[in-house]
Design brief:
With 741 residues, this protein is of the alpha+beta class. It is built from 15 helices and 33 strands.
């Protein structure tokens, strides 16, 4: 696969095309862990009372890393298991290695040998560590013994049971044949001329992260499964144009059940074959890099599919090989298996999985799914976290899982320093999650600020009329995060877009999205309110809610339909409830980007505002600024004013009242320019506060609302306005709004 020419904003790879020395990181030195793990207490004195737990966790991490150094040649070498496990081809032939300690015998078979399981088949040798291996020399003509594209399986003989057939655990590709349910493992090793060659360097990790969350399969406007190639060519330019600097790809690891959204992984090293081949995915990542986009992967290391025919469950016939064997190893709500992070080979498998996606596909980081389930032996099930620190540092905590996460973050940030981003999906509020490992933290860069989306659902479904909205409550939710631990905020993600839930746009406009979104008909009060509040909610969340921002594809323009994966009737495993299917229809498993492109539909207004919001954030980089101050949260006026970086954000949530000469407190005594207004006509506004006609706002030496300076401004009803110092605005945006002087 060759990428078509595109305008590059990233540096091309120097030297030989597509080369990145796989041994470039060998011998890299990890920083010594000389501390006691109590550095995290410096920012949070409450942790002092839990030094026993923190010290135990840190010592366990230090001891494990020392053991890896002693027995495996270091963490860098240990995490390259994908080079030695599974299939490995060299000039002489193919070696296949598999860890299956419970099995008494193993035989590799497939298309390449006519599925031969006889005594003449490819029976493997077992070593003292439970690993089976076999070497298959090249054919007489020099070709590999297993042709590219061949189906392969491994048969295990197990104690007290019938033989079992499995897909190799480290398989790089798996496909589902037409009319069949289980997937088939495929030996993927195309000739060099068919392998994609990378053209662009990895970008540096963004200092302020604005993520476009995307699912490749459902990214087409047509009712079908989209491909990696089509996503790269059709959707990536949209993401770039909208101003996001990162794309987060869901459902990349192979998963047998499409409707699981990619979260029930069956083959951890295999690219989801529904959307194309591994080389197609490489093309996608490289094209994103050519646009300067960081590519994050939605990674599932929290659990695995309970499938045994094509997954890891009961892989060698035992219940506890990769997973805990008791109740701790089963997630009853998800009907999935939970890893045993204290097992040496599980640690190798998961750390190597991280390295594989980075080294082979050039991913720039990960969003770790289900971290709450990992960190607690109860998996967060039927537990209401109150913020009491005893809930985080006690017997319920899975210290082995915490150590794995520390190891993963330490490894990633050491080996890919300056190029790596890690994000934790955690609903529990675990302290130290986003502090460096050398301090005793878990090492993530960000956590997802999941309470914000829940708050917006509460507001839109329970708070009633706009006059009832509590400004202080909204501000508290946005600002309620741990000091020194960065967060990714979002008003809604893929969770709110699923069937059975509602997106922000649907909460706001409901059925009128199907009847009154045309500009050819007069404004309706419902749609007018919906468009205004949709813009405000998103800017409020981005501006005040965290140090990064996330949007799920389509939500930027108020996608009118929920997501409903094609599915048959089924019975829910955890409840026994019958759930009707949808006739395996793809009608609601797509994204209607065409709606935002139609000039006569109001979706274009939301799309345009989202792009402008990102443009201002990218120019001023206020998400990366440590300066954040809320000077006004007036319930009487329904007005909120806050500063972020150099910018001043003014929200008038009042549904009926506009304010003239409203005094706005600010940090700097200087001239300000209006750099973003939701009332601009291109955003569906009414031009009462328009960036192209707004005057210069001169801040006086007049203290107000706890700020040393202030200026007067007009606040139209249901609008957000962003102001910035005129000199900085002119420099960063290349223009300044005309002055009335």
């Amino acid at each position: 696969v060759e990428a078509p020419a595109s305008v590059a904003t990233a540096a091309p790879i120097t030297g030989k095309l597509g080369t990145e020395d796989k041994d470039r990181l060998k011998g890299i030195k990890f920083a010594p862990l000389d501390g006691d793990g109590f550095g995290v207490c410096a920012l949070d004195s409450t942790l002092e009372g839990h030094k026993g737990h923190l010290g135990h966790r840190f010592n366990k991490y230090k001891n494990l890393r020392a053991a890896i150094d002693e027995h495996e040649g270091g963490l860098e070498q240990f995490s390259r298991g994908y080079e030695n496990m599974g299939f490995k081809r060299d000039a002489k032939g193919i070696t296949y290695t598999e860890w299956a300690p419970n099995a008494t015998a193993a035989c590799l078979f497939g298309d390449f040998n006519g599925w031969d399981l006889s005594g003449n088949g490819c029976w493997m040798k077992k070593d003292d560590y439970g690993k089976f291996s076999i070497f298959l020399p090249n054919n007489a003509d020099g070709s590999p013994a297993i042709p590219h594209g061949s189906r392969v399986k491994v048969r295990f003989e197990v104690p007290n049971g019938a033989p079992i057939d499995r897909i190799p655990a480290w398989i790089k590709f798996a496909v589902q044949a037409p009319g069949e349910i289980p997937f088939n493992g495929v030996y993927y090793d195309p000739p060099k001329e068919e392998q994609y060659k990378f053209k662009y360097e990895r970008p540096d990790a963004p200092e302020e992260l604005r993520i476009y969350e995307a699912h490749v399969g459902m990214s087409s406007t047509e009712p079908k499964i989209n491909s990696y190639i089509e996503f790269a060519d059709d959707v990536l330019p949209r993401i770039k144009a909208l101003g996001y600097n990162a794309v987060q790809l869901m459902a990349i690891q192979e998963h047998a059940y499409y409707a699981s959204f990619g979260y029930h992984v069956t083959n951890f090293f295999a690219v989801s074959s529904r959307c194309g081949t591994p080389d197609d995915l490489k093309y996608l990542v490289d094209k994103a890099h050519s646009m300067g986009l960081t590519v994050l992967m939605d990674l599932v290391h929290s659990h695995a599919s309970s499938n045994s025919l094509d997954g890891l469950n009961m892989f060698d016939g035992s219940n506890g090989q990769y997973f805990h064997s008791g109740p701790e190893g089963y997630h009853w709500m998800w009907d999935s298996r939970c890893f045993n992070y204290g097992e040496w080979e599980v640690m190798r498998f998961l750390l190597s999985n991280l390295r594989y996606w980075i080294e082979e596909f050039k991913f720039d980081g990960f969003r770790f799914d289900g971290v709450t389930s990992m960190m607690y032996k109860h998996h967060g099930l039927q537990v209401a976290f109150t913020g009491n620190y005893d809930e985080y540092f006690g017997m319920a905590t899975d210290v082995d899982a915490m150590v794995y996460l520390m190891m993963a973050n330490d490894m990633l940030h050491t080996l890919y320093d300056g190029k790596m981003t890690t994000i934790a999906e955690d609903v529990s509020g675990m302290p130290t999650l986003c502090r460096p490992v050398h301090e005793g933290g878990v090492g993530f860069d960000y956590r997802l600020q999941m309470a914000i989306a829940d708050k917006w659902i509460e507001v839109l479904s329970e708070w009633g009329s706009d006059e009832n909205w509590d400004m202080g409550n909204l501000v508290f939710t946005m600002e309620n995060r741990r000091y020194g631990e960065k967060c990714i905020s979002y008003a809604e993600s893929h969770d709110q877009a699923l069937v059975g839930d509602k997106t922000t746009a649907f909460w706001l406009m409901d059925a009128e999205m199907y009847t009154n979104m045309s500009t050819l008909v007069p404004d309706s009060p419902v749609v007018s309110r919906g468009i205004a509040l949709h813009k405000m909610i998103r800017q409020f969340t981005m501006g005040l809610g965290g140090e990064g921002y996330l949007n799920f594809m389509g939500n930027e323009f108020g996608h009118p339909e929920w997501i409903d994966f094609p599915r048959d009737d089924r019975v829910e495993a955890s409840t026994g409830e019958f759930i009707p299917g949808n006739g395996n229809s793809y009608h609601l498993c797509r994204r209607r980007f065409d709606l935002a492109d139609m000039d006569h539909l109001r979706y274009k207004y939301l799309n345009a505002f989202d792009a402008a919001m990102n443009h201002v954030a990218g120019a001023f980089k206020y998400l990366a600024s440590s300066h954040q101050y809320t000077s006004c949260k007036s319930d009487a006026d329904k007005v909120v004013v806050f500063e972020r970086g150099d910018c001043v954000f003014v929200f008038n949530w009042n549904p009926t009242q506009s304010f003239s000469d409203y005094r706005i407190g600010c940090r700097d005594k200087c001239d300000y320019k209006l750099v973003l207004s939701s009332d601009n006509p291109e955003f569906g506004g009414y031009s009462n506060l328009w960036t192209y006609t707004a005057p210069t706002y001169s801040a006086e030496d007049y203290a107000f609302n706890g700020r040393p300076a202030s200026f007067l401004a007009y606040l139209p009803s249901r609008t957000v306005a962003v102001y910035a110092p005129a000199a900085i605005a002119d420099k960063l945006l290349g223009y300044a709004a005309p002055s009335t002087e």
